From TrEMBL:
Keywords: Antibiotic resistance, Cell membrane, Membrane, Transmembrane, Transmembrane helix, Transport
Protein name (Swiss-Prot/TrEMBL): EmrB/QacA subfamily drug resistance transporter
Bias (Polar residues): 1-14
Gene Ontology BP terms: response to antibiotic
Domain of life assignment: Bacteria
Cell location: Cell membrane
Amino acid sequence: MTTAREPSATSAPANPSDAPSVHGDDKWSPRLWGTLIVLCAALFLDALDVSMVGVALPSIGDDLHLSTSTLQWVVSGYVLGYGGLLLLGGRAADLLGRREVFLIALAVFAAASLLGGLVDNGGLLIAARFIKGVAAAFTAPAGLSIITTTFAEGPARNRALSIYTVTGASGFSLGLVLSGLLTSAGWRFTFLMPVPVALIALVFAFRLLPRQPRPERGTGGYDIAGAITGTGSLLLLVFTVTEAQSAGWASARTILSLLLVIALAAAFLVIEQRTAHPLVRLGIFRNGGVARANLTALALFGSYAGFQFVATLYLQRLLGWSALEMALAFLPAGALVALSATKMGAIVDRFGTGRLMLGGVLSLTLGYALFLRLDEHSSFLGLVLPSMVLLGIGFALGFPSVNIAATNGVADDEQGLASGLVNTAFQVGSALVLAAATAVITAGSNGGQSPAAQLDGYRPALLVITGISLVGFLVTAVGVAVERNRKQPVAVPDYDYPAAAVGANSEVLSQR
């Protein structure tokens, strides 16, 4: 269980107005509830957009006459902007002001959603999706850091973060269902639906979000070189992984791109170690809870994104389910996540983030393993429902606890950085595991479309996904064991010293 960091000079707010607004179990005011609801609405839209477009892709391709290779960029464009710029978005919130960054990015998100629903050109649609991804890369860490600097670390923050992160998980799960309903009326509604919600959230955010003094720039200026190399390496990594399916993993282009990613990442690490005001203070990873939470985030969200992709193909292509039937199959998982929203704060307080992350990843791993029983005639009750129940439990336990662990013990002026790091872990994990699952499916099926050939691709992909989730479980288990050992008291031998000796030793110790 992650414990609160003791007050220190580095963790104290620079300005009294930066101090958390809630302490302990104080009753929340209507304004605080309104602030939390606004931030939840923005995260819900971000998560919704990740999953909602998938079901609409066939209709988009038919209407805009897009090839398969072009169509995949409707998804990849969003992931590229979101995953590639999250780190920069988190640090921008710390440096430029969380409220200002959130408001501007939410307005851009609404405008890009409107553009995506109105365009009649594939290139413009992909551009709109990329802009939406960039906007989400700034709203997500800014919103999370507003929560972590408004609610005091402990029960109040755990409750707020549980509601916030479970709302995001619900948006991701329920996006499939909403997309199935909206696509039946027209794919453009999947893009237009978020517009009024984003505008309403923007109005209330302007009125409710706490105003804080603009952060001081500092004498060393901004880390421009770190921003270029760090953001460039993330953008190129997401782009390379996404394009590797068409270019080939062993192609010269893919290999050269990966080498360039490594070179940019190495340059970024060197710059961050030497600059006085780094984009990412590498010392943040000395906090073992933060480091383990980010690794768990990679495995948790990456494995789920890969599973959703495989399950969607299996249910629609092999079993012949409609888009709406497939979306409703995921409803039990989303419903469990949504129903747990108000309870997770108390559960985190009781059991701690480490145990909940462990239980969450274990539940996800078991759900993936059960789905390995898929065949040509699987049923909803026999195959899909048991896995969805386990996935819902896993996400409900794991997603909030990962976000709490990733921001606990971090100074207020680095909450945007911590938020950007964990969100980056989610998105990069999603891109990497999705690319790996796609490559395994392609290699296993060997291009065949028969049920047997499809199963030869789906089963190995599910094995890879289950293995990645199992690695996340092991990482979390090690973290729980480390925390448990730290908390065990050290046994001190009870020697029967003479009273005079004890007094002399006490005098010496007091002088030290």
